[in-house]
Amino acid sequence: MKSLVLEEKGKLSLRDYPIEREEPMGPRDVRIKLHTVGICGSDVHYYTHGGIGVFQVKAPMILGHEASGTVVEVGPEVTTLNEGDRVCMEPGIPDPNSRATRMGMYNIDPAVRFWATPPVHGILRPTVVHPEAFTFKLPDNVSFAEAAMVEPLAVGVHAATKAQVKPGDIALVIGAGPIGLVTALSALAAGCARVFVSDIDDRKLELAASLGPITPINVAKQDLTQEILKATDGWGVEIVLECSGSPKAASGVFDPLCPGGRVVFIGSQVHDIPYSVGKAMVREARVEHVFRYAHVFPRCVAMLSSGAIDVKPLITRTFAFDESVHAFEVAAAAPPGEVKMQIELPQ
Ligand SMILES: [Zn+2]
């Protein structure tokens, strides 16, 4: 069976890539047969731009990091997983002895090896060897497609955790892409009474509004701060979650924020952006940043299983593995209304 290989910027191929035969199995590792893989903005960016910041594709690399699958082999010291278990996987493997990991911040361990981040291969391929510690068993009522959404959902849950959502908070999520929508769902699950979601794509906003007590704001037609102030009696929102990665949106996060509010920057910024320290200061705003996530995969799986969060409406398109190259062309064209596209591997 083949793998989806990014040969170089703009060039993808489905071809045999003998990586599995080279992968050693440690005593606490499991081998997983991949089932469903989500296409992430970062995968698409590597395809269209050949790199993200310091991570540049210099040799052929297999794409994909949002995955679910089935355990097909377990190392001799594995205790929590068995052959045949359905699982999802955390794509970053930190160095267990690094200072950041020992302090619990394994996601910001500078030595973390993360799937489909050069030079580490991703998982659009038949099987992968992965540590038991970063592999999570799925309850029967969580599908492979939902399980492949746990990775992006983890970003939203980590952001809601950083925001320290209190029951009844009102939040604004800037950006209605996959990360914006999982962040809105996470904010609601964490206790927000209402979430505003802003974007310029009416179809994504319509989808957002169907997910719960979510008020859409189209910033191409409406003034974001005015709408928020109007809806909150001039007070503003307790939490702003910036998921757009737009420099303009990110530099305006304090305008709709209430006194004592919190801002979490989630969307990546390629370049430096200006923001008003004065506006942050008069609000005593607390500003947080997230980089991926830590310690939240089991929480995400539990919320999908209990129904506290439903990610199914976010999966707008599914491709067969042999259509992978086409799937990436579609994703790169960013058709309006599409949120999460996934690829299903043959079983
Ligand atoms: Zn992702």
Textual characterization of the structure:
This protein is an alpha/beta fold and 347 residues long. It has two domains: 3-149 and 311-344, Quinone Oxidoreductase, Chain A, domain 1 (Alpha-Beta Complex), CATH 3.90.180; 156-289, Rossmann fold, CATH 3.40.50.720. 27% of the residues lie in helices and 28% in strands. It contains twelve helices and 20 strands. Strands 3, 7, 8, 11, 12, 19 and 20 form a seven-stranded mixed beta sheet that branches. Helix 5 packs across helix 6 and helix 5 packs across helix 11 (297-306). It is globular. The termini are close together. Residues 40, 42, 65-66, 151-152 line the site of zinc ion (ZN).
Please name the defining characteristics of this protein.
globular, six-stranded parallel β-sheet, seven-stranded mixed β-sheet, EC 1.1.1.9, ADH-like_N, D-xylulose reductase activity, binds zinc ion, oxidoreductase, metal-binding, alpha/beta, Rossmann fold
Layout: helices, strands, pairs:
Elements lengths: L2 E6 L2 E5 L3 H4 L6 E10 L2 H9 L1 E2 L2 E2 L4 E2 L3 E9 L11 E4 L2 E2 L5 H4 L10 E2 L12 E5 L3 E3 L6 H4 L2 H14 L6 E5 L3 H12 L4 E6 L2 H8 L4 E5 L5 H8 L5 E6 L4 H5 L5 E9 L11 H6 L3 E4 L7 H10 L8 E6 L3 H10 L6 E5 L3
Parallel strand pairs: 13-14, 13-16, 14-15, 16-17, 17-18, 19-20
Antiparallel strand pairs: 1-2, 1-6, 3-7, 3-11, 3-20, 4-5, 7-8, 8-12, 9-10
Helix pairs in contact: 5-6, 5-11
Bound molecules: zinc ion.
